[in-house]
Queue: 3 jobs
Job 1
Amino acid sequence: MKERQVVIGHALGLHARAAAKLVQLAGQFQSSVVLVRDGAQPGEADARSILSILLLAAGHGSSLLVRADGADEDEALEKICEYLSG
Amino acid sequence: MKDSEKIIHGVVASGGVTMGHAVRAFDPQFISFNYKLRLSHVDEESDRFRRSVEKSRQQLRRMQQQLQKRKGPESSFLIDAHLLILQDKLFVDRINEKIRDEQINAEWAIQKVSDELFEAYDKLQDEYLRERRGDLDDIVRRLLHNLQVNAQPSFKKLPYDAILVGRAIPPSILFELRSQRVVGLVTETGSPLSHTAIMARSLEIPAVMATEDLSGISPGEQLILDGDSGLVICSPSPQKIEEYKPRIKSTKRSPRSTVAAAPIVTTDRVRISLGANINFREEVNAVVSSGCESIGLYRTEFDFFRDGRQPDEESLVGDYTEVLKTAKKTPVTFRTIDVGIDQKSWDGVNSNLGVRGLRFCLENQDIFRTQLRALYRASVHGKTRILLPFVSTVDDLDTAREIIVDVRKDLDAKGQPYDANIPIGVMIETPAAAQTCDLMASRVDFFCLGTNDLIQYYLVVDRSDQSVMHLYNPFHPAILRCLNQVYLLLEPTGKPITVCGEMAADPPSAAVLLGLGFTSLSVSLPAFVRIQQMIRRVSFSELRDLARQLLRMHKPKDIEERVRATVGTETS
């Protein structure tokens, strides 16, 4: 299990389009990917679930903890953090 | 073109003459409502849901391809979001779990899961994201739509003078039609007694049903619909249009003035109570402003399922409060919902002998309790009466009464005010109820006679099957004997009884009802004036004598002729 803190770089934050792309990206890996946001209700989102990502309401500049767990966790963490930081 | 003028024959289902353009309605749209599954049906239901997801996915992919072709890849990303929702565990898996764990139908599970998600969306601070609930809403609608066996084309772009043409058109659609100003209705199936016809009359939309093949009518074709003679004239010639013009104008809706200003009495001064039947809460105002003394039957299921989903208690309290406030002091008899779980196509083959009416309510007590609670809570705003449909045993009746007691206790505990004296009534519409109404009398405050179903069950004639429609006959000696027996059984009990079926709405058969002793009728508003006029023309004691003779006659046709000769056949 690997995790890393990342700041959302997209101008609009994780909105519909960015969230859709994130789900598609996360779907390419075997590892499970979870996003954790402090203070959000619910505070955790499955990166493969567009609805849970949208409910995180992570705007531009908000900080997320990305947690990847599985065979390709390193690559998954790398690519997803790269995407999130914009 | 003169050459192409063609006349199609059918049955009069709702009177009036209208002219418009054909709009084809292909398959019936189904009302979705919520019900519990038997354990053995869970797999099947989860499969049904899966097919709906798959179908939705295919539709979205097709849309995406079309968009990409026309506007480039960028514009199709919104559809990506929709497609992703369809594979979202948070959504799809949870719906499947609900179907299995709670043993509920797919529609219900979709509503439950999406309601939870909507609630979460509504709590978001971010306005843009809150708006994203629209995507979810869209998907929910698509899934519900695709769960219907035969999906319906949208009626959004109807011309203003649309005449709906189809094999069957369910009453649920008529509400939509109303606001679309659909001017007429032609169907291959159905009959004057089908729910669609009842609804068409109540909305005053002329309708012809049980016609020959309608596939020759092309969309947009001009039609004259003669609801008084059961004719449809396709591509009418200019002469034909000229010929019909005066009648088309004359049947335009006219405001009903004070129809019931004076008490309604027969020539020998017998007071007859005449109420109004309604199907939609919007009709209450017309009833009150025309001075009717009561709403004798409010068929609540049409409003109940109007949004295609099960309403919550608060919105029902709001609806019923509005009805009672609009009705002012006029008593309103709310018949609790009368549907069956297999009765998805209201006009097709249905569960007339299955789970419907009170049986449905007792099997789906959450729905029943919600409606009862709402009725009791709203009852402080007007004169409420509650009527239980399709009762066939005293046991069912007792169970229903226990539920009512329970609902009241619950309201007491919560300190909710309500009218403690709401009369509870039973619908006599099954042969079993007709035979045992005296046994039910001590358990209820009033009775309603639903002649449509009673005749259907007595004569074993499915009222939506036109091949046996000619056998449906209110003048059958079996019906006269049955009604006579009900009257004799109930008369000593002193419990009031109102006849609210179609039999009360046609002057000759209504005269028979008076003759058998019934002094309280309830009819749809369009029939109100003609029944009122009939009552004021006849002598009650003469009708009583007539009925005694009718009860000795053998043949429906002879009975009908005899009645018509005595009462006169004017129907308007």
Note: The interface with chain A takes residues 77-78, 80-81, 84-85, 88-91, 117, 120-121, 123-126, 128-129, 132, 135-136 of chain B (CB under 8 Å).
Job 2
Amino acid sequence: MADPMKIRAVLKGDTVDVRVLMNHPMETGQRKDGGGNLIPLHFIQEITVRLNGKAVIESQISQAVSRNPVFSFRVKGAKAGDKLQISWLDNKGDRNSTEAVIG
Amino acid sequence: MNQSRRKVLQRAGTAGALAAAGVLRPQDLLAAGWNKDAFSAKTLADALKNIGAAGAGDSKDIVIEAPQIAENGAVVPVEVTSNLPDTKSIVVLVEKNPFPLVAKFDFLEGATPFVKVNVKMGESSNVRVLAEAGGKYYSAVKEVKVTIGGCGG
């Protein structure tokens, strides 16, 4: 199981600024290990951002997103106490989901 | 219970346990929404075609913020805002990467068409951003020079 994500959600008026850090190697399949063998592709493919259970952003990404991906998003119509949930799915079927309460 | 029936049941039980443990994975069922054709495309034209964005017109309403010179191609920050009304999605491509398509973001009700993402760039290239608004794709581009590439190594 991958480490939980770090989510920062800052409310400005009715818009929440979201910054999320995911722990993931995001291997491109082009790098070689110490023995000269290719390290297989391993990357996050899908990301979903939900506000109070409702999907607000759905994303598909490639191995060209940097290692330990960081994203910033903005969601309108949020208020203090709302729940923000971010989840991902990678090409090996691993999943992760983290929830933050907007402060 | 005869012997062969017992074996079949045992095998079924083992397969079930493996599936539950996540060892057996129906790969085809994974990431059904992930646009494999577009992400596997090796040229910009193919990627655009597979997204359904071929022939996208230029737009000044797509704002790309990225460094002119990136010292480290492994982490190039790209920030995109679409000022096109009713923007439904933003697509980020690095034209000269081995697989140009980097990411597609769909903005559902409530989300602002804004995103910041760190991308890998193998070499100096145009960063192309598409925005889908009103059923059409629009395009903008920004050149980023890379000192040290970030894909292989």
Note: The longest helix of chain B spans residues 3-21.
Job 3
Amino acid sequence: MNHLLPLFVVLPLLGAFLNSLFVRKKAKVSDFISLVITFSLLIISVISLFLVNKYGVLIYKVGGWFPPFGISLVLDGLSSLLLFTVSLISFFISLYSINYMEKYTSKERFYTLFLLMLAGMNGVVITGDLFNLFVFLELASVASYALVAFGVEKEELEASFKYAIMSSVASLFVLMGIGLIYSYTSTLNMADIAKVLGGSLNKVVVFSGVLFFMGFGLKAAIIPFHAWLPDAHPSAPAPISAALSGLLIKSLGVYSLVRVIYNVLGLKILFSPVCMFLGGSSIMIGVLLAIGQWDIKRLLAYHSISQVGYIMLGLGLGTPLGILGGLFHLFNHSIFKTLLFLNSGAIEYSAGTRNLLKMRGLSLRDSMPLTSLTTLIASMSISGIPPFNGFFSKLIIIFACIKGGFWGYAFWAVIGSILTLSSFMKVYRYSFSTQTQGTSSVREIPLFMKFATASLSLLCVLSSLLFLSGFSNFFLGTAKKVLVDAKNYSTINSILER
Amino acid sequence: MRVYFLCFLLFAVGLYCILRKRNLIKIIIGTIICEYAVNLFLILIAYRMEGRAPIYSSGQNIENMVDPLPQALVLTSIVIGLAVTALLVALAIRIYDKYKTFDITKINQLKG
Amino acid sequence: MNKKERNLQKSSGMSLIVKTITRLTVGLILLYGIYIVLHGHISPGGGFAGGVIIALSFIHLMLAFGKEEALRRFSKEYMAFFEGLGASLFLAIAVLGFFAGYFFLDFFVNKGTPFKLFSAGIIPLSNVAIGIKVSSGLFAIFVFLVLLRIIGRDKE
């Protein structure tokens, strides 16, 4: 059963290379290839969830070399949660982009770049070696620089340039941190580093932890490092905005940060006040900056900063309830933020505008009923209204703050949620108000886009069931255990000696 | 210890170039200098006293060698740096096509 | 002789001395690049360095003779094809080890005696694949960055 693990990286790479080789013949082939590959990745990730619940940790030795000498691929609870999220969302995104990317030229190159980015994200999540993490991080980042500049308009090129410069400086910080850790422990395998360090708080380890925090924090868009996100995410085509906001900042940013600082370096106690403070300020500053925006995608990008603040607040608490809340909110945010970006793309596809003031007179609610319903569901999810999934994850995070005695953070989290609700009421009022001014030439979106958005909104409702303890133990329990007993990561290599 | 300090100084020079220069091409050159500084740092970590190059030919007995692993890391990092630089230069050419200038104070369409 | 002199005078590029020396040396540069790729497991070098040198031989051709001559030898469709071929070849080598019952990227070719040319498992094969990909990729980057101004706005 171990042999499933390389497939997460091999399948998207295979799709990308086949796409660039064989696509001269017909244009529909690339749609078909990417759909088949993302669907098979979804099936394999569901199988991996069952495997992790049965076996605990799965390790695959690449090339047959045992781990301190070779690279290993490690599948534990946290990796399988993120792999499931990435596969699910990327399946819906590739379904959506069958119709949406008709408006851009060279759709085949879009699929090549998208599959390369997917391979990079899967590789980051599943690898057990620190330098391999850096290589896949760079693969996903470079693919995303090219994807942000995909339709080559003025603003998109400028946004992509800013994003590329800031993100490559962040990767260089990560590489410097890797160099320092290698010089101190002389091994690159993550579990081996954890075993050698043994929880010691040396000055070199703390300095490299700070370097990692700066590098991965920029990829995750936490508050001092957020300046690239409001320019890069709106400029990309809508499915790529959804992929960037829903997947990339979580798998490259939050996952890598938590894995390296909690599991590999063992610095949980030292960094937890930092994570909580930056998470709390991200919540407030993201929401306050978002209320005044009139471009719908820029508003959604600022809300991404704020919701990642919730995730960092939950993960930074360190208590089991807090980590459960943070991971649950990570999964939920992928779903509803993707849905919101795909809906804004649908509005742009049909009505041709992204400005909330211009959408007002178009009476979109009558001509696009499904889109208005799914936008309503997604807005209620992100604001935390009871039957939808956002409510439960934010509730768990706020309870965890109160239980830990952090009344200030809980208060600011509640205020942030109220302000999120107000800003999404503004979005819904301006975009889907029923001021009919004559007939409009706006039609509903085509079939694949409808299917993708409808399924995602159904998932918004269904994933609130994860609050029940049976499902949450299956789904999130193993992930929570990895982060709560963070020191146990150093012992996973002993599985191979059996 | 002095050598590592000079490495960080080179990185700081590159960072100054990214932050304070107004021409797009100079910003790209600043990024390249930062990459060189980090590659140099990785190679310097590998040095052992009285070590020779880690090449193993036939008919030679093994003496002290420097650490070969960071050399493989630097090879990968140089390739990645090449890809990022090529993409940045292509973006800069396209920006010049649309904006007719390389000056970043005039390329400020995205605000707020 | 007459046609050759007319060819030399009408094509763009550099002067006659550069063109003569290029015609003598560009084959040697290509051969040297292939040597570095194939001996990657014995002496320093390997896929990336050898691939860069092979790309340099084509760039040398383009600098000396002008872009039409170089693109006649190695046109854009061939570039895209070789790039995809190199990548797929590397992935095929990796996956074949996987399916043959060994691990992913394992050695399934006979290891041979050390320091000979046909030894060290799959390392020479993957060096060849990487050499093909890097050379065509680097030449493609150079062509597109140089020709972007001339061809105009309908480029990718």
Note: Chain A touches chain C at residues 3, 6, 10, 13-14, 17-18, 20-21, 60-64, 106, 109 (CB under 8 Å).
